[in-house]
Every structure is written in C-alpha cells, then in structure tokens.
Amino acid sequence: MPEFIWLIIGAVVGIALGFVVTRYLVNASTKRAAQEAESVVNDAKRQAETLRREAIIEAKDEALKLKQDAQAESKERLREVRSAENRISQREESLDRRVESLDAREHQISSMQGQLERRERDLEEATREVNYRLERVAGMTPDEAKAELLDTLKDEVTHESAAIIRDAEARAKAEADKKARSILSLAIQRVAADHSAETTVSTIHIPSDDLKGRIIGREGRNIRSFEQLTGTNLIIDDTPECVTISCFDPVRREIGRVTMENLVADGRIHPARIEEMFGKAETFVNQRVQEAGEQATFDTGIHDLHPELVRTLGRLRYRTSYGQNVLNHSLEVAYLSGVMASELGLDPIPAKRAGLLHDIDFEMYPEQHCVKAPELLKEAGAEDELIHAVCSHGYGLVSDVKPEHQMEKILFASDELTGLIGAAARMRPSGSVMDMEVSSLKKKFKDKRFAAGCSRDVIQDGAEALGWSLEELMEKAILAMRSCEESVNGQMAQLTE
User: Fold this and answer.
1) Same structural domain, 484 and 360
2) What residue spans of 348-455 are helical by DSSP H?
3) 471 within a domain of the structure (yes/no)
4) What is the pTM of this model?
C-alpha cells in the first residue's frame, strides 16, 4: 500500500513537473515567436521605408527630367518664334525698300518730265541761236560760213545721236524690267541683302548661319578661292545671318558683293561656281560703271571725252568723300561751273568739262589727289588748259597749282562750296536747296564744326578771286544748284537702280 501511494505521489509529482517543464517550454517558444514576429515586422517597416524613399527619389528624378525637357522645348519654341520674328522683320524691311524704290521711280518720272520740258526750252533757245548764227553768216566768207555750219551740225548730231541711243537703251531696259520683275520679287523674298553705306566694308545677308560652313568650304577652300578671285577679304564671324566683305577698292568690293549675293541665291558654292559667278559679277559691275560714265557725260552735254576717262568717271559712283557720293559731287560742280561761267560771259562747256573731271583721279588714287590727274588726262589727250584747271582746284589743300584764269577760279570757288551747300541741304527738313536762303547757309559757314571737311578759307579765297563778296558767291551758287538739283537727283536715281 505505501508503495502504491508513493507511486501515485511520484506520478503526481512527475505530472506536475512535466506540466511545469511543458509550460516553461511553451512560454519560451511563445517569447521566441513574438521576438521573431517583432523582428519580421521591424524588417518589413525598414524595407517599406526604404522603398518609400526610393520611390520619392525616382519621382523627383522623373519630375526634374520632365522639367528639363519642358525647358528645352520652351527654349526651342522661343528660338523658332524669334527666328520667325526676324524673318518677318526682314520681309518688312524688304517691302520698305520696295516702297522706297517705287517712290524713287515716281520721282524719276517727274524728273524726266521736267527734263523734257527743259529740252523743249533748250530746243527753242537752240533755234534762236541758229537764227542768230545765220544772221552772222551773211557777213562771212563762204568757207567761214561752211565751217561754222559744219561745227553747229556736228554738235547737234552728236547730241541727238546720244539722245537716241539713251532712249533706245531706256526702252530696252523697260522691256527687260517687265520680264525680270517676277524673278526679282522672288529673289528679294529669299535673299534680303543689307546694303551698307559706302565704306570699306559691305555686309551680305544670308538665309541661315548653316550657310556659313558651305561658304568656308572644306578646309577653307571656298573662302580662299573667293578672296583670290575678287581681291577682297571675306569676314565670317559670330554675327548672325550675315557675312562681311572688306576692301579699300570700292569697285572690287562691289564685284565681291555681287558675286557673294549670286552665290547665296544660287546655293551651289564651290571653287568652279565661285569663278563663274565672279565672271558674271565683273561683267555686270563694269557695265554699270560704263553706263554711269556715259550718263554723266550725256546729262552735262560733254560728248568728246576719251573712253577711258568716261570709264574712270563711271567708277566714281562707288566712291564717297566725307559722306558724299563723288560722282554726284562732280555733277553738281559741273552744273554750277557752267552756270557761273555763263553769268560771267564765258563758254560754259570748258567750265562744265573741268567741273566734271576735277576729281577724275580720286577713285584710283585718293591719297594722291591732283597729283595723278595730269597723268590720266595726258594719256587721254586732254589739253593743257583742262589739266591746269583740274590741278588748280585743290590749291592750298592738295596742290601747288594756283588758279589763274576765270574758268579755274570758277572751279576753285565751286568745289568746296558745293560740298558745304550739299551738307546744309541734307540737314534741312526738305533735304533740298529749293528753300535754302543765304542767311541760313552763312550760319553753317560760320560753324566750323559743321561739314568740317569743306575749307572755309578756300571758299573765301574763291569769292575774292572772282571779285565777288561771300554773300554774292553763296547766292549765285544756291541759285545755280536749284536749277540743276532735279537733274542731278534724277541722274543719281538712275545710277542707284
């Protein structure tokens, strides 16, 4: 019995002990599971936080990329808008130039009408002159009368033949203008070329900066070929949509400008094409030079000039001095000299000839003005009186030849004064001498800063040489320039077409 009890007690103790051990093991297992669960939860939280941060970073990167793309697209559209604005501005400038050209042509037409009226008056005066000479013939010998008649007929035939030739050329140009108008309008739309003032450089507009690489050519072969042919310097820099041609020779620079404009319009730029366009440009410019010289001699009534002098005179259309076109200045001096000679009772033709040719050496030898003139005139067979007059107009400035004869004194007084009057006219609202008064011109004369290149001393000396007061010389010069202003403007309008 006691053993049984001990067995029961042992069993109870064993069961209790097993229960305790089991409970301990269960609790320990529960704690480990809880710890593992907590560890898993913490790992999950850390991973979630990491993923969240990565997502935020990726979102920021994507937003930055989208912002950069938007900015780039905005810049590109802004560039396109500016480019479109530039093209529109260029087309507006082109239209403005067309309007100015039309206005100039209207002015030319009115000028031609005035010329026709003057020619009618000249014809009436010529008729009266012929009648007067016929009256004189009655007292001449037959040989003297024959010589007088032959000289008169020679002058009239020369002038009429020149007029017929000019009229035929005008009609031919009018017909050609009709056919070329559509071509010119298309070219103006494609190439809006900028024409700078007469300096040592000319600026040519190009459609885009991409064309600069084609102008330069592979390893610079195109630009070398262009500079060797034209004798100019081609400047290609960062200035947008333009290239610059530099040269001290205005005719050579003009040939280079026309060559480059033709190349840009054509689009095919390589050495062979450059040479071809250069040949065409040279022919074109030389033709315009010849036409300018012929037109100047025709309008002034000087028909016996040597062809080389006519050509040299035509080159002056591309030369400027103190902002004034030298050919325009020569025409003004010729007209003024002729009017003043007539008033003094002298033959106006020699005075006109001296006035027209007084700057004949300025185009090729501007630094040796009045020094090279005798050589050019002697080669053309000019008489000594003309050579002496041309050299004397620069007395006290660039020449030691003193004006002695009346014709020389007229030229001496007219040269500097026309420059002063022309500068004063350009400052007036009308831009003309028609409303200019002597008092206004005298104020400009006293202002040494105005038209400083015109010597006041030479003008004063010229008045004294002619036996006139300064006011008388100014009055006569203004009246003379009023009488020829329309003709000179019409001449220059034709030359600049």
Assistant:
1) yes
2) 348-357, 373-379, 384-392, 406-427, 438-446
3) yes
4) 0.57
